[in-house]
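Your task
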Amino acid sequence: MPSSPVDSPSRPSPRRNRPDLDPRGPRFGAAITAVLLLVVVFLSLTGASVAALGLLTVLAALFAWGALAGAGRHPYGTVFKALVRPRLGPPAALENAAPPTFAQGVGLLVTLTGVVLGLAGLAPAVGAAAAVAFVAAFLNAVFDYCLGCQLYLILARAGILAREQTAAVGS
């Protein structure tokens, strides 16, 4: 028997109509994001600042999509559900969508900061923001450690986030 509502695949999620997630989906998306962020860093370091800014802008838009629509409705999640998940066995457990969705918001904040500073003429900020976001995406993709999710849990335990958003988050 599942130990918490987060682990229950049959129980509907009470959080803003966001279904629980296969935890492998956000990790798949983090891998794609990490590669693209590494490209931004490379472009920034080689002087292709316009291309770096353009790609970081696209990534910020993808983070916005994930933060606003929910991590489960992110385009990478759609690709995962259609092409990758059918080739895998069922997940051991489903996870609450709120922490990965919050992590998308953190990614949006970091990448949007780089975009705004890049548009303001601070080209090195584009590569710096991409490098910071890359570290987080890499940790999630390779080690299954989501920095944004950990920040979510810290804020939830501190009572900073709304109660209904954190109801199904484990201790």
